[in-house]
Structure formats: C-alpha cells, structure tokens
Write the structure tokens for this entry.
Amino acid sequence: MIRMTQNHILRDRALAFRSRHIPGRPLVLPNAWDATSARIVEDAGAAAVATTSAGLAWALGAADGDRLDRDRALGAVARIAEVVRVPVTADIESGYARGSVGIGDTIRAVIAAGVVGVNIEDALYGSGEGPLRPVAEQAERLAAAREAADAAGVSLFVNARIDTFLRGAGGVDLTLERAAAFLAAGADGIFVPGVVDPVTVKALAEGIDAPLNVMAGPGAPPVAELAALGVARVSIGSGISQAVHAVVRRAARELLSAGTYESLAGGLDYGELNALLGSGR
C-alpha cells in the first residue's frame, strides 16, 4: 500500500513538472547540488528543484564531465529527492552509461530515486572522436530513456541537452537539426546551454517544436526578457555552486593570511539553517 502511494505521488509530480514548461512563462530553476542547497532552493519558493551535475560532482570530490559513476551520483540525487516536496529533475550528464541498454538502467534508477525529469547531454568527453555524439547514436540513447520511463509508468520529462554552442560545434541550423531528431526519438524538451543572445534564443524558440531551456547567469537577459523570447525553462547550471565555493576560498584565504573573518558576514543564521533542515519532509 505504501509503495502504491509513493508511485502515485511520483506520477503526480511528474505531470505537475511537465505542465510547468510553458513558453513565455518559464519554469525557473536555481540548481542545487546537495540536500541542503535543495532545501534552501525549495524554501525560496522554487516550483521544482534541478540538480547541477558539476556542482554535485564537485561536492562528491570528482570533476564534472562524465567522471562520476552512476551509483555515487544517483545516491546524492536520491538524498535531494528525499528532503524536498517539490518535483526534482536531475542532470545525469551523458546518462552514466556507455550504451543505450545502460541508459535504460540509469533511468530506472533515476525513477527509483524519486526523480521526475532528467537532462541528457550530447557532448563527448575524452573520446577523441569529436565534441558531440553522432545524432543517430544520441537519438538511440534518448529513445532508450523514453522507453524505460514509459515502461515504469512515469511521465519522466526528458530534456535533451544540445552542446552545439557550449562546445563551439555549430550554430542555429545544426542545433535545430539535432533538436528535431532528438524530439522524434522521444525527448520532451530541448536544453541549449551557452547561448543567451536574444536574436539566437528567439530563433531557437521559434524553430524548436518543444519547450526550450536556456542556461542563464551574470550578463544574461533577465528572466522576463527570456520569457518574452519564448523560453519555457531557465536554469543556471553550476552558477550558485561556483558562487558558494568562491566564498569558501575567500574566507579561507582571509583567515589564513590576515587572520580576520569579514568574508563570513552575511551568512545564514545557524538556527534558521538548522530549522530548515529539520523541517524537511
């Protein structure tokens, strides 16, 4: 009975998460990397929690870029899903698997962790074969993800990440070509990091027949402007994690050199943070 209730909750969260991808009224996701950051993001009013693969890998002592194994990554993601009540979507890099069969295994593990969305990227790391995975191969991996999710009865939102701009591998035309193939394979949305230029974003939003996700940060147009261009989802990747780690370095250097503590000013109150973690689900 408990298991059936959990499955029902997960299915409801998946549908709720899917419904929030509206062009012109984007889902805004401040990315988290551990249970504490996830609770803070949820408490700030986020409608969902998205993980950052880079921030998560760094928190586990690993580098980003397909260097973290599935069990360690999804163990951390499961802890995030355990402490929040809102839907969770996970950045699973290339899927923590070499082939499409392994992608299916990852998706089953993702759903078991309580997650209702994934990002799957098409970049290749360390292979020497080029910056992007061939279209047909990536489409096969996305199809395997879709099949595994559908078999589990969860409307998992598969966000196909296209790294044409981030890796300097192509422009609008190539991005649209890859997007069409990935949507035909079963993806639900398209994530194009590395581009915030309004003209380009508008061309992508108009040319992609699915919700468009862009990655914003300092120097990018505000969310309202991205919304007006037709964007359906705005995330900030590892931005918050990088900012937090900058505070760690600044405070450590100040303490070890000047022997002072001014970098610690403005931190969250101990009692407030402790209460926040104590009020999790």
